[in-house]
Amino acid sequence: MGTSTLSRVDVTDAAADLLRHLAASYGPLMFHQSGGCCDGSSPMCYPVGMFLTGPGDEFLGVLPVAGIDPVPVYMSKAQFEYWKYTHLTIDVVDGRGSGFSVEAPEGKRFLIRSRLLTDEELEAFGLS
Questions:
Q1: SS3 category, 77
Q2: How far, in whole angstroms, is CA 110 from its chain's centroid?
Q3: Which CATH architecture does the domain made up of 3-124 adopt?
Q4: pLDDT tens-digit profile of 48-100?
Q5: Exposed (0-12), middle (13-18) or buried (19+): which is 19, by Cβ within 10 Å?
Q6: Torsion over CA of 118, 120, 123 and 126, rounded to 10 degrees?
Q7: What is the dihedral of CA 117, 119, 123, 124, to 10 degrees?
């Protein structure tokens, strides 16, 4: 099975609802997870174009959220080395996260839930 049918990232229904709400105000969105300390280790949501990715970032895939543009997800390559054997799901909880992420004024914060890749996923991503 090829990687085109598998994804490294997903989104919960609650996070998708918040993304639709945020997209109505900010337009197309994207996520970046830097692996920095404190809130830097949380997924940060930005309007597309407000955070520039580069050669130090790994593209993980897009979140298909009904009603808005697909939401690309990136992670710093250094952090990806630690997380490459995991599938990531972006979720949302009550509480204030970083002021840099667009959900902060909503009293919500995005977070990552992870699980180990299955044998099929490991093979598809060339990790077995």
A1: helix
A2: 9
A3: Sandwich (2.60)
A4: 999 999 999 999 999 999 999 999 999 999 999 999 999 999 999 998 866 68
A5: buried
A6: -60
A7: -60
